[in-house]
Input
Amino acid sequence: GENVEQHPSTLSVQEGDSAVIKCTYSDSASNYFPWYKQELGKGPQLIIDIRSNVGEKKDQRIAVTLNKTAKHFSLHITETQPEDSAVYFCAATGSNSGYALNFGKGTSLLVTP
Amino acid sequence: NAGVTQTPKFQVLKTGQSMTLQCAQDMNHNSMYWYRQDPGMGLRLIYYSASEGTTDKGEVPNGYNVSRLNKREFSLRLESAAPSQTSVYFCASSRDRGRSSSYNEQFFGPGTRLTVL
Output
């Protein structure tokens, strides 16, 4: 089945700096790659996603890039703010996994003022 | 719209007890899911229901049963709870499921924190 690896597990940046989280996946048939943000005591919430026919997608301070050949995708957060502090999860899905979301183990991001 | 709601928010059980976690969504979604979240393990799929009347096993189904009661509700049952089932349980829903669908976004509930002693 699909295996999603996520790095780093923890990340600390200063307010205003950029943060990058990277994920790799194993199943070349995967074609949908969402990123979720989970705040303390809450359920995960989708922040951005990308499909396999697109190489990059941007939404204000958040961007995701996808390299299908290398089977990796990354989340980029620019001009970080303290409210960006949360756990971020990447996921991948496709036909081989029955369209189930396979999640990475998460990155705990801390943005210090 | 309330989105995805889960009850209870917290529960403590003794080993061997049974309980049912309830989940409901008001977004008219076809697909519903149950995940468990353990420290350092991310989210793992227990069971899912692609549409009303169907259920399928996910990655970690052992020790659980599910019921898709109707389009809105999807319950998770622990028949004989074990300490290994101590976890945070999340229910999620999506409009659809599949390669051609543009509605794969999953919406999560707030979670149920379960402790089995």
Summary: The longest strand of chain A covers residues 30-38.
